[in-house]
Amino acid sequence: MKNINQSIESVAQKTKENNNGKVKKIDKSEVIRILKFVGFSISAGVIQISSFEILYHAVNWNNWWACYLISIVLSVIWNFTFNRKFTFQSANNVYIAMSWTLAYYVVFIPISVFGGDALENIGWHGTLVTVLMMLINFVTEFLWQRFFVFKKSINTKPLSKTVDILVDEITFKKLLLNEKNICAIPLSAKYKDLNEGDKLSFKNIENVKEKMKVKIEKLNKFLTVEEFQKFYTNSLTILELKDISLKSGVKKGIDDIVEQEQGGVLAVEVIKINAKK
After folding, report:
1. Is the pLDDT of residue 6 over 80?
2. Are residues 192 and 108 in the same domain?
3. What is the pLDDT at residue 147?
4. Are residues 190 and 264 in the same domain?
5. Residues 115 and 83 occupy one common structural domain
6. pLDDT score of 248
7. Phi, psi angle pair for 17, to nearest 5°
8. Any domain includes 125
9. Is the model's pLDDT at 261 over the cut of 60?
10. pLDDT at 253 > cutoff 70
């Protein structure tokens, strides 16, 4: 017992040293990723089990492996599409990613088909065999996609979002004049996470019902307003947006904001989507 306690203490001490005396926390994003995968897998499972039940029982197609094969193909297409976009948020080439996913199923399907068929032949219920194969599929597919297919491309294509920006009436009218605009935005906490593909919704401070939505085509970051102005010297439309509070109506120039927050300037090249008056 004494030796066991010493071993436990030794492992704990090494763990503590490896983490610089801090307890290693579970990565929240990884937990969310797993939960998303679980959710989409459940929906894919519903599709698989429903299509299997329809073919195997409702249609009374007494051929387990054929019913299973069709049902798994339907679930794979569904699962891959949604997990690539929402779970792993990958910009990886869709054909390459799908090819590697198919490579997994080239191995998994024969094993599960022949293994499942063998279990059914020795008396296992067809539905029970299908559920078992689905569980094995869930675990192995997540590991394959997480640590191989999307390992180097996770979060390379984050989901687009829309950010509201209040502007004065003069700036709003200037924005309406052109299909494309280049806007200088203070790189504050509100805007630091903007990505290409995100949308901005400009609202006229004089009448917030007047809106204009644009899509971000390109982003550039500069340390100072001067650097931004030099880079875009020959551009036709440059708008230096102000940070406006709807409650107070206070307007701060971009120079003041950059100096205060020391975050720099975000040059946003945008294209108009729609305008509403």
Report:
1. no
2. no
3. 93
4. yes
5. yes
6. 39
7. -65, -40
8. yes
9. no
10. no
* Entry pTM: 0.54
Pairing of strands 162-167, 199-204: parallel
pLDDT-derived band of residue 152, with 50, 70 and 90 as boundaries?
Answer: confident
Same-domain status, 124 and 187: no
Asked if residue 22 belongs to a domain, the reply is: no
| Domain final position from 93, 128, 149 | 149
Q: How sure is the predictor about 37, in pLDDT bands with cuts at 50, 70 and 90? A: very high
What CATH code is carried by the domain that includes residue 245? 2.30.130.30
- The pLDDT of residue 45 is 85
Which residue type occupies 233?
T
User: What is the rounded distance in angstroms from the CA atom of residue 261 to the CA atom of residue 264?
Assistant: 8
Q: Is residue 79 within 8 Å of residue 46, measured between CB atoms?
A: no
d(CA 129, CA 215): 49
pLDDT for residue 140 is more than 90: yes
Residues 184 and 121 in one domain: no
Domain count, the chain: 2
Full residue range of the structural domain in which residue 41 is found: 27-149
Domain-terminating residue out of 149, 170, 203: 149
Instruction: Indicate if the pLDDT at residue 186 is higher than 70.
Output: yes
The reply to whether 68 falls in a domain is: yes
Same domain membership, residue 182 and residue 246: yes
